[in-house]
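Hi U.,

Before I forget, here's the chain from the pilot set. I'm dumping it here mostly so it's searchable later in email.
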Amino acid sequence: MGFSGRPERAAELRDAVHLLRPGDLPGPAGETYLCWRRAVERSVSVGALSRALPDLVPEAIGTWLDAGQGAPVARAASVLEAVLSETPQGDIAALILADATLAQALGWDHVVPLLTAGLKRRDLRKIGEDLRLACHQAVVASATETVRLAADLARRAARLNAVAPKLRAKGADEAVAMFLARDAVAPTALTSLRSDRAARRFCDRLVELGAVRELTGRDTFRLYGL
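Structure:
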């Protein structure tokens, strides 16, 4: 959202998506969030990226992914520059495809937004060697925080798996699986628990057990996650 000059950050992005009711539109911030979620939730492929970026034709995505040359970061920088030169307002697509290129070049199954997390808004105006240098700096800058976050999430996921056998509610296994797959969960999304009241009690129980956190600090319209 910072690249787009918009004010929304993590809390607003969660609300934009996880509090949607059937038929609601997520708005610009929510659409950006959903683009990234679709990009990272499946193995890297033209098909998965086409689902994440429906405004781009698969042929163009495939061409861009094959355009990068050299070492992994240099390849990603080349793709970033190529997409931005053809679609100057396509920051989201350019960043997603650049990180997808980096993931492919490193032999990773899924997109990890290392470049996007480390780049600055002004970096997107750079070209050539200046952009490649900015991309190298971005990966170095974001890698440490990414590893820390991954370790923290792994620890929290292990805690949730450890307490899961203590959960007696019918539908608890499906609910736990949802917490492990999403960054945030609204009680209303836990349909396997049969009622909103049961879902809220289930979430409060997980908080008591230290398995999940309440993420909003609100008394109503709460969201929970690792």
